[in-house]
Amino acid sequence: MNKTLQRINAEVMTPDNAWTAIGVLAVIIGSALGRKLLEGGWRAATGNEPPLNPDSEDATWLEALAWGVTTGAIIGVVRARSRHGTSFAGRRWSQ
Known about the structure:
Blueprint: H1 3-11, H2 15-46, H3 61-94
Helix pairs in contact: 2-3
C-alpha cells in the first residue's frame, strides 16, 4: 500500500468516523420513516392529505401551522434519538 493510502487509512478510516457516518445514515433513514409515518397519521386523523405546501389553496393556515409544528417536533425527536442511539452503540462497540 502506498503512503497516501496508509495515511488515509490511519487518519480518516477511524472507528469514530465510521460511527459518525452510521449516525448520519440513521438520521436520514429515521427522518424519512418518521415523515412517512406522520403523513399516514395525518391522513388517518383528518382524512385529508397533509398540507405540504402552505401556499396551496387547499390548506388553511391552521392546518399548515399544525403540520409544521407536528413535523418539526417529531422529526427533531427522531433525529436526536437516532444520533443518541448510534453514539451509544459506538461507545458500547468500542469497549
